[in-house]
Amino acid sequence: MDDESAIYAAQGFGNALGIGAAPGLVIVDFVNGFADPAHFGGGNIPDAIAATVPLLELARSNSWPVAMTRMVFADDGSDGNIFSAKVPSLRGLTETSHIGQIVPELAAEAGELIVRKRHPSAFFGTDLTQWLTARRVDTLIVAGCTTSGCIRASVIDAMCHGFRPVVVSNCVGDRALGPHEANLFDMGQKCADLMEFAAVADHFKG
Amino acid sequence: MDDESAIYAAQGFGNALGIGAAPGLVIVDFVNGFADPAHFGGGNIPDAIAATVPLLELARSNSWPVAMTRMVFADDGSDGNIFSAKVPSLRGLTETSHIGQIVPELAAEAGELIVRKRHPSAFFGTDLTQWLTARRVDTLIVAGCTTSGCIRASVIDAMCHGFRPVVVSNCVGDRALGPHEANLFDMGQKCADLMEFAAVADHFKG
Amino acid sequence: MDDESAIYAAQGFGNALGIGAAPGLVIVDFVNGFADPAHFGGGNIPDAIAATVPLLELARSNSWPVAMTRMVFADDGSDGNIFSAKVPSLRGLTETSHIGQIVPELAAEAGELIVRKRHPSAFFGTDLTQWLTARRVDTLIVAGCTTSGCIRASVIDAMCHGFRPVVVSNCVGDRALGPHEANLFDMGQKCADLMEFAAVADHFKG
Amino acid sequence: MDDESAIYAAQGFGNALGIGAAPGLVIVDFVNGFADPAHFGGGNIPDAIAATVPLLELARSNSWPVAMTRMVFADDGSDGNIFSAKVPSLRGLTETSHIGQIVPELAAEAGELIVRKRHPSAFFGTDLTQWLTARRVDTLIVAGCTTSGCIRASVIDAMCHGFRPVVVSNCVGDRALGPHEANLFDMGQKCADLMEFAAVADHFKG
Predict the structure, then answer these.
(1) Which residue is catalytic, options B150, B160, B171, B191?
(2) Which residues pair with residue C168 across a beta bridge?
(3) pTM of the prediction?
């Protein structure tokens, strides 16, 4: 995307936001169904889950606010929406279904916020914004899946809600690599900083 | 993207939403600065503007609610946000700047809503949602630019707010064609129907 | 409040909105804990619950979309917010607590939306808006408690989101009658029509 | 309201929130039309405007973020909503109308945010939330009018968005004193701390 990057640079896109004083971590939709290619998974999602384990440790050791999202639809279909009309298979992600549970290696600890959502964005129709605001978070470190779906939507919303988003590029994954790369490009140009986990860890060392 | 389409189809994405009983039209950011490659324009944006002229006529002749968006930042910089930190050149889009005015061929008529926004999405921090809801719109026909930026953000939000989005694929444009195509793919899989203007016009004939 | 009504009338407040073509019903926080003066109840809340039974029947017999709200906080306190800091006793309203369950006489049927909220308004941090929008509701019939708390907040938000609110005045209740009356006055002047259940039932007869 | 206060106290309402580390100030709708009993004014609004002058000085001398709201409807009526259907006289508050301008003694300085709104709440359909979030405000000091209208709506929303609201009780006013008092009571019980200006000034001394 060299030509495209040149166009964006000439028009003033892609400025670095930097990491602020008060980070928070959100892990988006790392649930069993997205770890499994037979449901919504595949591609580099398993690698991204593995890479998020030390990121979650970093967050906990630094006492950042930590939130984790799940897609959760009602058993009786009462909360069906346009998203579940567009992707009907999502309706299987219910409160108790196996595919809807957070993967065991990233299970939440007491005090970490579980966000149940029915939209791509972690913020839409949820309490995440005000939870982060009340904790005075200024920078949102983002991991999860999929890069082209719920990550993209959550990162745009994070920016709009007043948080500087940092997409940890090896901690986000997608079922197909073309959309993964295309969406990293868009986010890096327009709404987020992109950093590898190692660079994030370095930043908080010492 | 044939391989990717196969993965998405197998997992249940890309279901058609269809056009409902009550369409509305939103035209996103077709302002002078996005028609001009020296500012934020280029690529296929001029073609998309030209193709939107008959779409706007269709909307008016059918008495659909019509909304048009502009990016408008305050002259004194008081409303700067994370988006304008990421893309500082956007701050030149002010109430009276030439680059911030809607292109003449798509100028609003009395009664059409002008939405001033400071975020990618036409819905974020604006009254657009409730304006459409109060008019009982169920389907949002979308034109404008850029496909990978404000169109993508607006279309996701349209879906989340309960409207069926239809992206008129030759009435949206972008400064660079790679992101244009990648974002059409994402939207078609996850949040919108994609239709050429001719197909939209056919639908409303007779 | 005769003098006050005269001031409001002179300044143009209190215009009737009327009932539109597509009503929906929301029942706010009629849960065991608000039916019980030992928790959050008292006043005319029991009467309002009793009066809401035939209102719910009217809604079901006319196939209106029906939503019911509950306050639900997490067992581990992870989702504490400013509201629960102001009123700490609310934290006892959890997913499985007796006081947090909808009263038996108004239990939801399959397909009716249960809205879990952590704020006064039925709309804040929930999916209610888009659920009503997707169903093209234009008028929101409101019952529940408390008039001065979650009803007031929900009714203002209903108006802002583009729905015409009708407060069914004998189907809303409060623990104390002064705030009940004061808030009926405010809502009638600024954001809702006030109607007794009998008048609502009459409207939909024939 | 002694009896009522006892009921609320027994049920756990009215806990003090306290002032946090990072205050911001919002002044709601102190425009010419609300200073004038011939339009939307009267009661104790003039006193509240006068009392807000030193509050604004305090904010500026402490470099708090300052936001001021105006109701602004479009000249062509295109943005009419349910609120302006309920109170049609509000439509006269336009961008350039005399009654829509902020009163001269509280005119904004460069860098202070002017929030144009078409709803009671300063937050609804505006950028105020993310503007405060991006500046890491944790406590919102509130002045303006009317206590029973736009103050009440703004204060509930401030709480929901994650800010601790402080209503400066002599810097808010209403056209009629009954609703003024009733709404101060509700806000003090459920969503805000109430403080006189002198107490706020004392808090920030030294």
Answers:
(1) B150
(2) C195
(3) 0.97
